Amino acid sequence: MEDFTFKSKTKIIFGRAKENETGKYVHQYSSKVLVHYGGDYLEQNGTLDRITNSLKEHNVEFVLLDGVVPNPRLSVVRRGIEICRKHDIDFVLAIGGGSAIDSAKAIALGVPYEGDPWDFYCGKAEPKSALGIGAILTIPGSGSEMSESSIITNEETETKAGIDHELVVPEFSILNPEMCYTLPSYFLSCGIADILSHQFERYFTPTPYALLSDHLLEGAMQTILSLAPKLMSEPNSYNYCAELMWLATVSHNGILDAGRQSDWASHRIEHEISALYDITHGAGMAIIFPAWMKHVKKQDKDRFVRLGTRVFNIEPEGKTPDQIVDLTIEAVEAFLKSLNLTTSLTEAEIPTDKFELMARKALAGNTTLGRFKALIQDDILQILQLAL
Hints:
The protein has 388 residues and is α/β, with parallel strands linked by helices. The protein contains 15 helices and eight strands.
């Protein structure tokens, strides 16, 4: 087990109609906030009105900033920073999924900084301060509502990059499972794939002994495998949506990888795809992770065998370890396809002419990528080929 430091400051307000209490929680931190969101559906279904009415009831002034899209844009971040400075705003409230929350985090970092916020994401600067952040989760999957991560796309350079820093951990996050009822099935599927990818990144570890987190991760993966088909058939089940929403949060708040090294190579490779072609992140992970598994499967067969037998219920009797490994990867692909997601770049209509560029940018100036197996540029190219 590895040495680790674990800290969790986010207050979780979980349950039915909890967004109606937004003003009570925001008021504890600020009397003037930026409300950052995206999508007409929040206006059409009354969610935005309920939230802003609660802010008004608690005498919290607010300025609205729409424009959140999948793979949140640096241009929107810069616009949010200008608004906050103009109106002397000291708190950012995100409404949405990971894109809204990550964008809000970038705005919070950028307001007190004299340079460009992209400096933090490309490693040119280290943040020293940030505005307060709150979140109202409407699309579960990213786990950004309780994490120290923020990922932004720079449209000018077609680059997607992230930062991990305790300054961007939200002060509070409001989770109402009823928000899932109106989710399009595609975004629900992408969220499920994203959750599973966060679990996989932690499960495939070079740490030789981390028994507790192994069992926690296996339980989390078993939950998502069991929950997914139920959600697809009953998307308005409160209990199913509640399990999904909390599972997404727990899968990325640090508790499941305490004491172990996580990999994250697959995420870095996917970021280059979504930066260039704007594919939704969860959909991109459904393509890259099976390909990554095929490439690294000989690195630690026991890890794959454990995943297959404990999580995907593959019967080991009469099978060699190699057979179990291959069946495990097939089971992963079958599950992702059951969500109506594609598991190949070809089906997703992603061009193949920029593989060299993607591989180089994924390394971000480093010699290798990932911890389970250290990938060099040629490894990344082979993974992209396996994803065709």
